[in-house]
Amino acid sequence: MNAVPPPGCPAHQSLYGPEFAADPATVYRRLRDAGPTAPVELAPGVRATLVTGYDAALHVLRSPETFSKDPRHWKDLADGTVPMDSPVVPMMMYRPNALFTDGEEHSRLRGAITDTLARVESSTLRGCAERSADTLIDRFAPLGTADLLGEYAQVLPLLVFNHLFGCPVGHGVRLVEGMSGIFDGVDAEKANELLTTTLLDLVGLKRRRPAPDMTTWLMEHPAALTDEEMIHTLAVLMGAGTEPQQNLIANSLRLLLSDDRFAGDLSGGTLPVEDALDEVLWTDPPIANYAVHYPRHDVVYEGTLLRAGDPLVVSLAAANTDPALAGSQRIGNRAHLAWSAGPHTCPAQGPARLIAAVAVEKLLDRIPDIELTVPVERLRWRPGPFHRALAALPVSFPPAPAVGRSEGGRPGAGRPEDTWQTRAEPFPAPPAEPRAPAPGRPRSGWARPAAWWRGE
Ligand code: HEM
Known about the structure:
Elements: E1 13-14, H1 18-22, H2 24-32, E2 37-43, E3 46-51, H3 54-61, E4 67-68, H4 75-78, H5 89-92, H6 103-118, H7 122-140, E5 145-147, H8 149-153, H9 155-164, H10 169-184, H11 188-208, H12 214-219, H13 227-258, H14 260-268, H15 273-283, E6 289-295, E7 299-301, E8 304-306, E9 312-315, H16 316-320, H17 349-366, E10 371-372, E11 394-396, H18 447-454
Parallel strand pairs: 1-2, 3-9
Antiparallel strand pairs: 2-3, 4-6, 5-11, 6-9, 7-8, 10-11
Helix pairs in contact: 7-9, 7-17, 9-13, 10-11, 10-18, 11-13, 13-14, 13-15, 13-17
The structure holds protoporphyrin IX containing FE.
Protoporphyrin IX containing FE (HEM) binds near residues 113 and 241.
């Protein structure tokens, strides 16, 4: 039986409880006392080493010959010490995609992604993000109150990505439900199965009926992805494109609505959105701890033994706030690690930033007098070792009119930027009352978008 650890003992620091979610900075400070790397628990019984130093993080991220991204090296999973139903396994297990491969295999799979992303025009992406933002703002603008997380930041990336992937509405509902289980760790195995079968369906659909969308472009890439590789590449694109994206939007809105430095500029009419994004990427990066690597052999780093096959989790959040980093100027400085670094650095930084900037600008442009309805310190964060994610972002504002959507129920139909993309279905019509929760049923963070897609 495990002995109860003394309070604050870095050797037993957990990254999954509500205490960590409420105040990760204190945990990172405590862990730094052990040096640039420290032992942590990601979930009950799941041991890992957290890299908290900025230089140490760069060293791990840029040394693929020493540190592998392939979870098939993970000893505790291979020998059953970590059970397959542990809530962190779906986020860490091997899948044949860019995130979990090394060397030539990684270059092939990543090349297909970067070439596909390069085919998305930024004007197309901007138009799609703007229409999605308008559709959502129209829903709550006349009401005078909203939860900007559940009704905006969470749904907007789903609309954008389902559109970009040419995903029919029925598939969209199932994808959201599948991802909800994986991110929230609720019935993760079943969720994984739903996600896989839905993606398999989508791939089958596009093989039969290719269209000018990202799914088809990925499929037609010279890297010749197999169906299995297609499914797992789509899963990483959609997973990466929704959860961190929502957190960047919500965390930036939280900062803009609560920090006087930004409030002054807001009332002056120049929205310092780019500055807010930079600051959030430094202080509350959407993916706080991830970029899991496995030493290929025993390594001693700064006096600490890192054993072969033990997971090394890079704390992008702790590295960004490493006191050893010279200077405190954050705004305009993009040396943060929020997108990671090295061969696995996020390939979608430009699109991700653009979507977040459009989401924030559109909202503040249409509803400038927006206020948090609770003091910022009382906002709750979702527990979990990997993300920095608000549970809700309640606001109020003077009711504003809906601007209406384009004709035919399809936002932007007929605009030039739509010509690259044909869709089997229009965007789903917003539901009559998306905010009423089903009585007596607890809702996960992702239940609302799933309900939204179903039109509930
Ligand atoms: C604000 C939004 C985003 C943030 C903060 C973010 C951050 C990151 C980080 C930290 C990684 C490295 C993860 C690791 O090594 O384990 C990563 C990888 C990745 N991201 Fe993003 N990302 C965002 C949006 C997106 C979007 C919109 C897409 C796709 C459309 C995307 C696609 C990917 C892919 C495919 C990888 C794996 C790359 C590889 O392993 O070679 N990300 N992202």
